[in-house]
Write the structure tokens for this entry.
Amino acid sequence: MRIISGKYKGKKLRGFNIEGTRPTMDRIKESLFGMIQTHIPNSIVLDLFAGSGALGLEAISNGAKKCYLIDKNIEAIKIIKENSQNIDEDLKIMNIDYKKFLKNTEEKFDIIFLDPPYKENQMDKSLRIIEERDLLNEKGIVICEYEIGNPKTNLKLIKEKSYGPKKIKIFEK
């Protein structure tokens, strides 16, 4: 696993084997970032179920202004901190439950990555809180990566793609 483009292209990223986590494969990440590249420059990004931090760090590498990397798993936070070494950008790495973060943040985001553990029904809960709290800036986007179910939101679907069993939907405010 590595950063595939931008300022930190080629930087190796460490993954981990924690149940419920699975890093986004490089080919999917490359396709995804191709779809959202115009949204990235100077954006404020939230990688809500950050895992290794690969999506948020890719956004930073491609010109995002600030990135919040959130995960409740302390092992994931350790990996994110390791993967963030020598990245001299505005990163906020937080070991906190997703609901607590969403309900308490005062930040508004341009890009939100949602890739929660598939077995836990956190996608729809996250989307509901994001909408209720109006956490997206105007024209902000939410990227949902999932295998099971179908994200439920009032946001406008602007793109979708399937990679075998893995699906990505991009919604816009």
